Amino acid sequence: MPTPVRPPRRHGAELERALLQAAREELAAVGYANLTMEGVAARAHTGKQVLYRRWHSRADLVIAAVRAQTGSIADHVPDTGTLRGDVLGVLAWAARRWHDFGPDTIHGVLADLPDLDPRTFVMMEDVMTTILKRAAARGEIATADLEPRVVTLPSTLIRHEMLLTTTPVTEQTCIDIVDHVFLPLVHAVAGPARGRPPG
Amino acid sequence: MPTPVRPPRRHGAELERALLQAAREELAAVGYANLTMEGVAARAHTGKQVLYRRWHSRADLVIAAVRAQTGSIADHVPDTGTLRGDVLGVLAWAARRWHDFGPDTIHGVLADLPDLDPRTFVMMEDVMTTILKRAAARGEIATADLEPRVVTLPSTLIRHEMLLTTTPVTEQTCIDIVDHVFLPLVHAVAGPARGRPPG
DNA sequence: TTCGTTAGAGACGATGCGTCTCTAACGCGA
DNA sequence: TCGCGTTAGAGACGCATCGTCTCTAACGAA
């Protein structure tokens, strides 16, 4: 009888990539709620211990898997020439990113983790600050020195939308947020630079 | 030997109240993540079947338990005489309510339920509309006919705060939201009624 | 008083957890 | 080239909880 072929043993970065890939596939196949360490291990043709050696929990694994897939917003700061276009670009990026996770994944990770790594939010604030500074330099607004809560307002609203509505976040949602909330507020507290008319 | 005393069998509304009470006690004792149907049943001195007969899942049970405890915001619409005071009152009520749930309960319920009952949000919008109409009647603002996204802005922001920060929502948080975001925006899009100076 | 319902209690198989054990493949240093 | 230490791959294990099922007796309604 033929000896069954054994694939070579993977290790290091190659193995880790395969594990994260398996986690993403399992996530897409069964959803976060039904994702099990055993399922991921089976899909990766390995044992659970290999997973537990690297990540403490299901939530850690999934976060690592999604992080490894999508880049950072900091590497894709929009620069369209207008404040409105830039903010819409940021919101579109955020919407796509959260869509990649999927609502049930977000809810599940929030529930499984005691507290959330705030890096994502800080990054978002940095990007918004960059955009506002450029708008101020162009003379679109008088100053980029705004209350933190104002700076983070668009990303906060889009995040709330993703967390508490089942419907997908549309382009129109982003436009509403920018045109009906963010821009009116910014122009109210940091009106257009002198010498330039609004809108 | 003495026959062990058997308490009389409960039923109807009395039993249901006892079950919800047991669920609340169990929730406070072990938290949502560690709450089990068996634990609640044991605390209520009954069997699991009695629970499953009434609620399909852990999340259904917990929601029912908390709903039965706290009232509705619609029954406590603030009326302080100023728009600012009223909105702060609403936010304080919301903060207390969410605090009663606890962050881990909120996250857990969001994860366990496929989609959320939107009644809470609609109620919040109704209350805000009432407050804004009174402010318009007083002449504080020119009109109460605002974009839905503007009307729900304060409750949206406080909800986001509860969902994504671990720190408790303080009075100062509510004040920041009202003074730095909501009121400037409202005055920008529905400035003070003619003949009255702002602030 | 009878009869149908269901509370209270616990057994049951299934599932996934996180740990533990084992063997052999593999990388590295001598 | 060889030998040693690490760890991938595989699965067994005990435990907890799930949701279902069964049974008896208490209770309300007729």
TrEMBL record, chains A, B:
Keyword field: DNA-binding, Transcription, Transcription regulation
A GO term for molecular function: transcription cis-regulatory region binding
Domain HTH tetR-type as annotated: residue spans: 13-73
Organism: Nostocoides japonicum T1-X7
PROSITE patterns named among the record's database cross-references: HTH_TETR_2
Record-given protein name: Transcriptional regulator
Residue range(s) of DNA binding per entry: 36-55
Pfam families assigned to the protein according to its UniProt record, in alphabetical order: TetR_C_11, TetR_N
Listed InterPro entries: Homeodomain-like_sf, HTH-type_TetR-like_transc_reg, HTH_TetR, Tet_transcr_reg_TetR-rel_C_sf, TetR_C
